[in-house]
Every structure is written in structure tokens, then in C-alpha cells.
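Module 6 notes. Inverse folding takes a fixed backbone as the condition and produces residue identities as the prediction. Think of it as a translation problem where the source language is geometry and the target language is the twenty amino acids. Below is one complete input and output pair. Work through it position by position during the lab.
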């Protein structure tokens, strides 16, 4: 594997970052969080115009590493929209076959990810189809309809509002059965993409904290000169930066179908989501009082970190699975 990104991979991140800078500034995030909707069509169309939905299709020439790089930037911006679910749904339909591929590829139809039996699902009210990924029960694609019950819920993550979703056990179309290797691969891919989202968010709040420490002054000097805050910011950076390699390796191992790919996916999800929570807590402390305010917006990443940690299984669950896969 390469130990640095290629020019093409860097260009993917630059394109996503530039697009979100234009269509998803903090002011728009505030407006979205204050609204009753769970989906922002304008920013979604902008991301879909980049071709992100089809990044995992066999003909794209790309793979999970490139998808993870895109999700990292989405997490950095606290972008709305079920990007992870859309990528995985397109990948599943592309492999299995189906007439919905074109509409999913362009983002006209919105797919969101359902973990196992359902419960809390992001952007469910805007979804046209639900991709149910269950390592033990297989993968199903369920269109919205009578077999799906959706009830809006008040949750911590204001950038990706969730709903309570109940889906009939026999609803939809089975794409991959429980013994199909593709079911396990899609489940692992979901873990890695959530880890990438966490990486982007953790890096964002670290950068915000460093920038604030350079600007905020007390006693006639920037607070970043105070030894206690210096150490705190250094610990944040030392927590986040080494975790980047874990995400990159997990995505590379998935793309290359290495024997340790499932274990790397579990480790990435467990570790990055813990790192994200620690980074956001440290960022709030580094900012002082302003970090608690609604207007500043740091809480968006803190709330997103808490959701990422719980979504698709807790760090404890995935560390236990990683240990079992290692034969411990």
C-alpha cells in the first residue's frame, strides 16, 4: 500500500471540501438544525454531482479508501445526508443488479443505512429506500411504503436527525443472504466509513481548538502560550493523527480483501469513535465558555461524535469482536 495519498485521492478530498465550503457553511448548518427536516436537498445534490454515490462500484476505478476519504471530509464539515448509506446501497445494487442503480447513482433516490433490525435511522423521513445490513441475517433493500413505519425522534445529533424505524421482517428484496460473503463485507465497509466520519470530525475540532488558542488572548497574550493548554492541544493532536493510519489501513485491507480486513474494520470503528468523543470533549474544555454556546457550533461535532460511537455497535462490542477474530 501507499503510505501517502495519491494526487487523485487528494483531489477527491479537495473537491468534497470545496463543495461543502460553498454549500454547507456553519450558518446553513444552524438553519438546518433549527428546522423540522432531516434532509438538505441542496447540499445533497452538490455532493451527488461529484459522483460520490458510485465510488464503490466495480467500474469506478476506486474503492473503499477513496470512499473513506470522502466521508472523512463530510465528517469534518458535519454534513447532512445519508452519504454512507447511499454509497453502500449503490455498491450493493451494482453487484447484485437492479433497475434502481441509475436513480441511486445520481442521488435522485435517497438510500439510508439501517443497522440490523432498525431502531434509530438517520435521514429516514427523506429516504426512498432502506439498506438493511446485518452480518448474520444478510442484506435487504426495502422501498419506503406500508412495510416501513417511521416516527421522528429527538436525538443528540442535529446534523443527521434520526427517526425510529420499524421494518417488517419479510419486506423488500434480499440482495445477499446471511452466508454470502458480500453481507459481511458491506457490514465491515459501514464500520470503516463511520470511522472515517469520526476521523474527520476529530481533526476538525482539533484544528478549531488550535486556531482559537492562537486568537483568544488573556493577560495580554494568546492563551495558546499557556503551558497547560499547550499540553492539552498536543494530547489532542497525538490522539487524532496516529488514528488516521488505522482508518486508511482498514480501508486498504477491505479493498485488497486481506485476511485481517474484518478485524481492522472492527478496530477502526472502536478506536476512532472513542478518539472522536475524547477530542470533542477536550475541544469544549479548550474553548472555555464559548465552546458551550449554540452560536459557536462546536456542539454539532460533539453530538455527532456521540452518535457515531453508538451507531453500528459500541466500541466495547467491536473490541470484543476484534479480540475474537484474533483468537484471543
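Target side of the pair, the amino acids:
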Amino acid at each position: 500500500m501507499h503510505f501517502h495519498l495519491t494526487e487523485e485521492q487528494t483531489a477527491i478530498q479537495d473537491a468534497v471540501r470545496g463543495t461543502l465550503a460553498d454549500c454547507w457553511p456553519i450558518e446553513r448548518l444552524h438553519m438546518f438544525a433549527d428546522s423540522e427536516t432531516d434532509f438538505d436537498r441542496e447540499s445533497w445534490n452538490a455532493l451527488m454531482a461529484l459522483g460520490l454515490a458510485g465510488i464503490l462500484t466495480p467500474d469506478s476505478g476506486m474503492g473503499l479508501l477513496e470512499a473513506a476519504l470522502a466521508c472523512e471530509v463530510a465528517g469534518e464539515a458535519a454534513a447532512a445526508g445519508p452519504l454512507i448509506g447511499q454509497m453502500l446501497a449503490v455498491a450493493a445494487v451494482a453487484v447484485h443488479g437492479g433497475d434502481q442503480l441509475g436513480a441511486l447513482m445520481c442521488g435522485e433516490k435517497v438510500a439510508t443505512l439501517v443497522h440490523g433490525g432498525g431502531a434509530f435511522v438517520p435521514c429516514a423521513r427523506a429516504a426512498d429506500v432502506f439498506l438493511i445490513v446485518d452480518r448474520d441475517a444478510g442484506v435487504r433493500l426495502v422501498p419506503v411504503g406500508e412495510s416501513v413505519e417511521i416516527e421522528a425522534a429527538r436525538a443528540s445529533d442535529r446534523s443527521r436527525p434520526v427517526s425510529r424505524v420499524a421494518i417488517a421482517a419479510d419486506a423488500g428484496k434480499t440482495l445477499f443472504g446471511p452466508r454470502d460473503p458480500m453481507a459481511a463485507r458491506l457490514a465491515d465497509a459501514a464500520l470503516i466509513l463511520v470511522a472515517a466520519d469520526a476521523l474527520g470530525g476529530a481533526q476538525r475540532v482539533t484544528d478549531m481548538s488550535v486556531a482559537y488558542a492562537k486568537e483568544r488572548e488573556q493577560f495580554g497574550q494568546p492563551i495558546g502560550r499557556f503551558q497547560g493548554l499547550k499540553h492539552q492541544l498536543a494530547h489532542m493532536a497525538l490522539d487524532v493523527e496516529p488514528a488516521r493510519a488505522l482508518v486508511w489501513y482498514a480501508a486498504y485491507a477491505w479493498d485488497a480483501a486481506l485476511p485481517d480486513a474484518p478485524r481492522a474494520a472492527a478496530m477502526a470503528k472502536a478506536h476512532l469513535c472513542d478518539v472522536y468523543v475524547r477530542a470533542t470533549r477536550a475541544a469544549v474544555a479548550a474553548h472555555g465558555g464559548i465552546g458551550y454556546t449554540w452560536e459557536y457550533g462546536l456542539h454539532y461535532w460533539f453530538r455527532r461524535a456521540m452518535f457515531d460511537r453508538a451507531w453500528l455497535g459500541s466500541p466495547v462490542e467491536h473490541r470484543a469482536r476484534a479480540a475474537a477474530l484474533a483468537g484471543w
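Reference fact for the lab report: The longest strand covers residues 129-134.
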